[in-house]
Amino acid sequence: MLKKRLTSALTGILAAAGLAVAGLIPAATPAAADECTNAPAWRAGTAYVPGNVVRYTDGRYYIAEHANPGYDPVISHWFWNPHTCSGGGTPNPNPNPNPSGFVVTEAQFNQMFPGRNSFYTYKGLTDALSAFPAFTKTGSDTVRKQEAAAFLANVSHETGGLVHIVEQNTANYSHYCDRTRPYGCPAGQSAYYGRGPIQLSWNFNYKAAGDHLGIDLLGNPSRVQTDPAVAWKTGLWYWNTQNGPGTMTGHAAMVNGAGFGQSIRSINGSLECNGGNPAQVQSRVTNYTRFAQLLGVPTGANLYC
């Protein structure tokens, strides 16, 4: 009995001091295994809640920031963040999955345009960005991603999902030469049909875009359909500098809070807005909504024109 009492007293003293003696008190419970050690492989279509850690197909780890039905961690950045393990797992060697610096990763670009023409390369787009440094570089991260989604949504509509490089209705080709301009149409009457991601057309637009970019597009309009970077630059030229039938550029519409609807107006508002062609407007809005969701940002107000 005395031995039991002494043992009990000693156990209490040691326990209070945070010490363990074999045979007297149990060893402390091992710390929970690092969350990455037992992290399951990510699976598309599996429901995840905030705090869930998964191992992606490349061996890197991601943690769910918002509940989602199995969105891809390297594409849906609002729902997932790269996760550095506290012990047993391999941390992400590159927490920024997009070395290009563009707010849309190549994986997201490919998901936006799964059936795109190989002419429209991601590299061509990122190479063109230097010509317009304010594009997707203005405002908050949300605004930057909204602008990217808006530009690419309109591009998708104009080209059938980045499928068409040139205007499909060849009967229109001869219409785009305004010979009242002092420079005329040196490349020929039928040379200035729609090309590129926003279907640049008319001799005066080729002249203006070429002058801005330092490229002779008036004399050599075919460069827009043979050089991916030039094609993307003409689309970005229109988006960043031209009001079209609207009152502001697409860039201004998105960074100043006017809304996606005003970007539609600047591109084709005279034919589509104010009830002119609601199906075409809806196509653009549907693209934008999908792309904004993919980038993890809200669409904002004023979607229609």
Automatic annotation (TrEMBL):
Tell whether Isomerase is among the UniProt keywords: no
- One Pfam family hit: Glyco_hydro_19
Q: Name one GO biological process term.
A: defense response to fungus
Q: Does the keyword Kinase apply?
A: no
Keywords, sorted A to Z? Disulfide bond, Plant defense, Signal
Q: Any signal peptide, and if so, which residues?
A: 1-33
Ranges for domain Glycoside hydrolase family 19 catalytic: 107-305
Q: What is the active site of this protein?
A: 158 (proton donor)
GO MF terms held by the record: chitinase activity
Disulfide linkages recorded for this protein, renumbered to the chain, are 177-185, 273-305
**Residue spans crossing the bilayer:** none
Q: Which PANTHER family match?
A: CHITINASE 12, CHITINASE-RELATED
Q: What is this protein called?
A: Chitinase ChiF
Q: Which organism is it from?
A: Streptomyces clavuligerus
